[in-house]
């Protein structure tokens, strides 16, 4: 391995608790939690979309992608399971492992607030331009 490739490989793929400096990725924080191996495996599979939710399994086995756990009629995907599914078992799992998703929820909220702010700015500009054109 050339020195450049070795240094880049070490810089990007070397592991540390906070992630390598300048790396395009870091070690997910949930891997540092004291969780059972099956929980870590399932959570990792969920993040990699290597799960058995119907949105994926219908691609392999055919059939419907509609949620079979609740009566909502929505596609059973990650968003549905994390936020909307009313199945008692899913709700219980969501509450039990809510700490694993806390950072994601904060990021989602921040993105939604940013989008709302942009929309409101656009709306104010649009309305003011419309009013100006009406008075001209």
Description:
The N and C termini lie far apart (70 Å). Helices cover 62% and strands 0% of the residues. The protein has six helices and no strands. The chain is extended and about 70 Å long. The longest helix has 38 residues, at 98-135. The protein has 136 residues and is mainly α. The protein has a domain at 101-136.
Which structural traits does this protein have?
single chain; 136 residues; mainly alpha; 0% strand; 6 helices
The number of distinct β-strands equals 0
What is the number of helical segments per DSSP (H or I, 4+ residues)?
A: 6
**Share of residues in strands:** under 5%
Order of SSEs: HHHHHH
| Relative helix content | 55-70%
Low-confidence stretches: 1-19
Secondary structure blueprint with pairings:
Layout: H1 3-13, H2 37-47, H3 54-61, H4 78-84, H5 88-96, H6 98-135
What is this structure, in a nutshell?
With 136 residues, the protein is mostly helical. It contains six helices and no strands.
